[in-house]
# Entry
Amino acid sequence: MVTKKKRKKPHLLSHTRPPIASQRPSLSSQATRSLIRKHHNLQKQLHTAVSNGDAVAAESIQLQLAASGGLQKYQEASIQGQSAERGGDTSKVLMDWMDGLLSPTYKHNVMGSDKLKMLEVGALKVDNACSRSGIFDVTRIDLRSQHPEIETRDFMEMPMPSNGSIAKDGFDVVSLSLVVNYVGDAVGRGEMLRRAASFLRFTGQLQQEDGTGVSILPALFLVLPAPCVTNSRYLDEERLEAMMTFLGYVKSKAKMGKKLVYYLWRYQGARAGGEGKMGFKKQEVRPGRKRNNFTIVLQ
# Structure
């Protein structure tokens, strides 16, 4: 008799986060980029050590992370990278898209009492473009908050709204900006994308102004480092879109930058089809020795 393979439960994000350091010196642009790259590389090594049950290696990597400043230094680097002086606020792209999608009348009405609801995962700042826009009521979460308006919470443990409460407790937009790439394993990244859909609500009150009657929302705002899609051995634009289609998303907007790629995915509801029936496993789609190994797995 063939036994059915159980889906491996992904690690919680908090299980791969390093301790917080106490010092907070300012960083140059070059130092910021270097620290973020080093932190991500150590995070990958830590996840591998934890997955293999290698406590000695995991402890050594934890010490390296703490010596380099820990999560607080990483968050400081990320915040500086998002500063207006460095043009790093990814939510500006979302707001440019929303400005083009929403009619002036709707924006005037929504800035009154009935604002759109947004869940910002991995929030670092409370004054970014979407927060200042006036059209969003933003719920901000991060594993270890550095601001009283950002709730300390692991998204992978956050209770999902029930069918009866989704209209009230769900969101019109979920933002995963530079969050999915932080997850240490490919299965966990897939589970994060799948989980995000569970927080999106259908209200039906917002449609495009082109007469097509196509809804704009609910939507997922996804931002990844460009090499995750443009130079990965296992993930390209076509495969990412196939995965998102399987999860029930349709690509509304996309922007390919030198450093980052931005997407707005409209959620239509869960559906299955094509390769997704068997899942999306780790599969080479772009050979080459200089490719990176970033991938997303859907089980």
Summary: The first helix runs from residue 29 to 51. The two ends are 22 Å apart (CA to CA). Residues 16-25, 79-87, 272-276 have pLDDT under 50 and may be disordered.
